[in-house]
User: Fold this.
Amino acid sequence: MAWLGCWRAARKAEAMYQHLDTAIAWVACLFAALCAVCARLARDLWNVSITIPTDPMELSLWQRRRRWMIWSEVAALPCFATISLAAALYWDVPIVAAILMSIALGGLGFGFLLNGLQAVIRKKMGIEP
Assistant:
C-alpha cells in the first residue's frame, strides 16, 4: 500500500507542474500582449496630437483623453492573455501559438476585439449589421 501513497503524491506533483506551466504561459502571454499594446499606444499617442494645447481647459481634456486611452488598453491585457491561452489549451496547439495570438490581440486592440465579437453575436442571432 505504500506504493499507492507514492503514486498519489506523484500524480499531485504532476498536476501541480501542469498548473505551474499554465501560469507561466499566461504570464508570457501577458507580457507579449503588453509589448504589442505599448507599441500601438506609442504610435496612437504620437498621432493623436503632437502639439500640447496652451489653454488650461484644453490641456486638461488633452491629458485626460490620453490617460484614459492608456488605461483602457492596459486594462484589457489580462483579457488578451486569457483568451489566447484558453484558445491554445482548447485547440491543443503549442504555447508559442498562444503567445503569438496574444501579440496579435494586443496589436489590434480591445476595440477591434469588441467589434469582432459584436459581429459574431449578430450573425448568430440573425441580426443584420
Notes: The CA atoms of residues 35 and 79 lie 15 Å apart. The chain has one domain: 2-125.
